[in-house]
Amino acid sequence: MSYRAPLDEYRLLLNHVVGFDAVAGTDKFADATPETVDAILTEAAKMCEEVLAPLNRNGDLDPAVLENGKVRSSKGFAEGYKAVADGGWVAVSADPEYGGMGLPMTVTSIVNDMMVASCMALHLNPLMTQGQIEALEHHASDAIKDLYLPKLVTGEWAGTMNLTEPQAGSDVGALSSKAEPNGDGTYSVTGQKIFISWGDNDFTENVCHLVLARLPDGVPGTKGISLFLVPRNIPDETGAPGTANSLKVVSLEHKLGLHGSPTCVMAFEGAKGWLIGKENDGMRAMFTMMNNARLGVGVQGVGTAEGATQKAMEYALERKQGHTQEGTIIGHADVRRMLATMKADTFAARSIALSLAVAIDMSNATGDAEWKARAAFLTPIAKAFGTDTGIDVANIGLQVHGGMGFVEETGAAQYVRDVRVTSIYEGTNGIQAMDLVGRKLMDGGEAAYRLLDEIEAFAEGARTTFPELAELVWQSSENLRETTEALVARDMPDRFAVAVPFLRGFARVLGGYFHLCAAMAKPDRAEARIARFYITRLLPEHVGLLAHAREGAADLMAISPDDLAV
Amino acid sequence: MSYRAPLDEYRLLLNHVVGFDAVAGTDKFADATPETVDAILTEAAKMCEEVLAPLNRNGDLDPAVLENGKVRSSKGFAEGYKAVADGGWVAVSADPEYGGMGLPMTVTSIVNDMMVASCMALHLNPLMTQGQIEALEHHASDAIKDLYLPKLVTGEWAGTMNLTEPQAGSDVGALSSKAEPNGDGTYSVTGQKIFISWGDNDFTENVCHLVLARLPDGVPGTKGISLFLVPRNIPDETGAPGTANSLKVVSLEHKLGLHGSPTCVMAFEGAKGWLIGKENDGMRAMFTMMNNARLGVGVQGVGTAEGATQKAMEYALERKQGHTQEGTIIGHADVRRMLATMKADTFAARSIALSLAVAIDMSNATGDAEWKARAAFLTPIAKAFGTDTGIDVANIGLQVHGGMGFVEETGAAQYVRDVRVTSIYEGTNGIQAMDLVGRKLMDGGEAAYRLLDEIEAFAEGARTTFPELAELVWQSSENLRETTEALVARDMPDRFAVAVPFLRGFARVLGGYFHLCAAMAKPDRAEARIARFYITRLLPEHVGLLAHAREGAADLMAISPDDLAV
Known about the structure:
Two copies of one chain form a homodimer.
Chain A: H1 7-17, H2 20-24, H3 34-52, H4 56-61, E1 65-67, E2 70-72, H5 77-86, H6 105-139, H7 142-154, E3 157-162, E4 178-181, E5 187-197, E6 206-214, E7 225-231, E8 233-235, E9 241-244, E10 247-252, E11 263-276, H8 282-316, H9 333-366, H10 369-400, H11 412-419, H12 429-437, H13 446-462, H14 467-488, H15 492-496, H16 499-521, H17 526-538, H18 541-549, H19 554-557, H20 561-564
Parallel strand pairs in A: 3-6
Antiparallel strand pairs in A: 1-2, 4-5, 5-11, 6-7, 7-11, 8-9, 10-11
Helix pairs in contact in A: 1-9, 1-16, 3-6, 6-7, 6-8, 6-9, 8-9, 8-10, 8-11, 9-10, 9-16, 9-17, 10-11, 10-12, 10-16, 12-16, 13-14, 13-16, 14-16, 14-18, 16-17, 16-18
Domain Acyl-CoA oxidase/dehydrogenase middle (chains A, B): 161-269
Domain Acyl-CoA dehydrogenase/oxidase N-terminal (chains A, B): 37-156
Pfam families (chains A, B): Acyl-CoA_dh_1 (PF00441), Acyl-CoA_dh_C (PF12806), Acyl-CoA_dh_M (PF02770), Acyl-CoA_dh_N (PF02771)
């Protein structure tokens, strides 16, 4: 099984779909010229194809295990990680002051996309570190930054996020971990955390945990939570990882997928930690990390969709069954339909993720409020639609394989299992949708309407070249506008009840827009044919979704728990 | 984890939705009075709840293995199977002449539904036997029937289906297994078969294989295929399983799910077999078995959806997270939406499956051509929509569990893994859809239009009670009628390209109809509230599906394999 990075698609997206030229045009990202970006992506692609992709099955067949309290990682993962770290791929966007490349999040996202597609379980490790770097850059003291960031950026040390506790999942405010001041500026952190991805590993010198805990005077709920940096090994005077801290991995979860990524139960037993940000202000710092992570997780969906699509294509081009012009099952219309769906939806999800990355970059580079609002608005959509697409596309990929898809040796099922968690972690997709219809519509729909204006203006301009496609995209945008207006006029319970179909409807329309951009850029090429497939056959799903989204809460909540019981 | 058979829902379906009174009104099924059927279902429910459900996790954790060429089944499966056989649940519909209960397929389907929900992996064994019994009843000689049927009906012996070979999956006609006449009326069967569910077990005295193979003068393709009965042990003069036949289990597949069901590679090495039906007419006999099996597999989807829904409900009523009126996550609107979707779609898929069973029963009881056509028409829809619903509902169930859903100990992931094969085996869902738009529309749409007439007449009658719901169902039926007319007017390539969205659109509309029936029967009860949810929020999906279904083949096939490559 071989993975090939879709470099041409990235080039098309950057140049013609998500408007990366605006990013490259800022002072902050002036170094991100087309040539530089291309060279970087080509280099990362080579590493992913040659080093990471061959490790993907290892992670599944030889899962990470806990031996004498230490994680032993899957065969080859240490070498794979070294290639990631040595290439500088842990933290492409990190501040050059601390050794980063200072490149846009858009470039990070594409590099992540390739790393996920080639080996999602291993890549989850640097993805966690990326979030930690961003949180420290924004909220840590200079002393902490000087000590930790250079180690994290090079990948010598790894970072983790410790939020969840058994009684505190989606409701982070329910957590009970404690932090007591030691009197010397440090804190003693005590508590149990669960679902900690890569809570330990055997290939970095140190593992640095960002832990949410409550100070003695912290009020109940999210307003009494603070963030602490708790390293596995406490750095000594030279900055080298010194004595072991009072924390341990208690156990690893036995999961549906992602076997190569150890999901740890962590126990902090008076572990020494340093406050990050202000007291009782931990949620804000955590959100810096989580927003970044939400884009990253959306990209996990996209990358998996790419891997699954390539695998299904490989099989479809090889498997002979029935009589077709092509000689293989790719000649059957229904197989073609499945593959086209995979390709078209992967493109849609990827465009949304990268247009979020562009909005983040523009917001960071210019401080412009509109870009900031756009980034905020697109975050839940990129996370939820990216991961739902990863799940759906992986499932279609399995289907393309027929009976062989159900056999584990084939490898198609691994994509289905690995990606399944992405609609759950970093805020379930239900939470993303509630964020969209709640916080992200608090501006009265301004950020949404600005996007729709842009879509409709573009569709108007495309009418000459693609009259039918332009009209369909324009209509879908108008339908979405009316639905958005209806939601904005309603109270929160009414919005929450239809949040998920609304989010998906929004994503469908955005996908239509980005496909139309691609078609306009390449009107006689594959891109236009795939765009036509998406816009005429997949985009119409928005009609049903938006009908659902206009229904409100009353009829739903009238269904009592008893009504749902046997 | 406890399973409760949804007996009230079965009663509602029989009495008010799928028209079982017509079946009970025939001479053939005069014994199937409401009281008898209720007593039988209650008894089967007890066995499923008490005996089978506790075995479900065993099948996953302690998979069937091959030891010295013999299958060793999962812990407890032998005892579970004994309860199934002793209760007479292997073959509820088998001919009383051979020891069966002679009850309608509708009753068999409900009993299967309960057995699947409680332990799908074990139930797959009697499901295979059911198909074999039906094939033998229709096509075997009296001598074969007298010898085999009594043993199969009691469950003393088990049956299997041997179609697939490595190069012959969906294209059965490509098979290369051979049968040579021995000169004594028996045949020597040689070849390798793959994906043979329950190809062996350690709890029946004999295992009887129905094997497709080619006689020396058999032409290539499906027209040269004959069907043979090849027992593992050759019955002696007394009818007891005698000496071992020349066949063996070569290996078991390592699968995504259904670990309790051994999926065998079988080698037949000059094994002694008996011709079933006429020479070169094996496909017809096989289709008897496969049509039965297609309903059975659709019901596997329904049963799994039921099991997954009950599991998710249990979790949602227990898990505290955030502040809700109910105190648990069932108070969150999005969780309610997920559970309502599971409940409503399970009901829709179950209604379709049972209305197919009723059509089969009416066709068998009356010989009426319209009932026969309806059974033929509904078969691919019940199979594909039933299994797609099983897959979707199991996935939503996992999502309801949040992070715990990804942890195997929870059990939610097992439903996702187990049910995944159902959209592939017994004819992939793509093949079902092609059957629907091909063979099943060869009547010019007559069977389809008769269904739509029935839906619209019912919707008209429901307008006074449920004006909005009746109108939505009526509209959806009209949309479907227009789409069907468009398809009937087109050639096969145009139909095949859109077969899958057309089938799903058809199922969505049928689901709306059956929900409306339920609402009319219980206008102030849970059924009406769930029907409203389905009709206003899920049924609208048909709009997008039917738009896709009107697109034809040209734009799709214009996307070349190169267009889909990286």
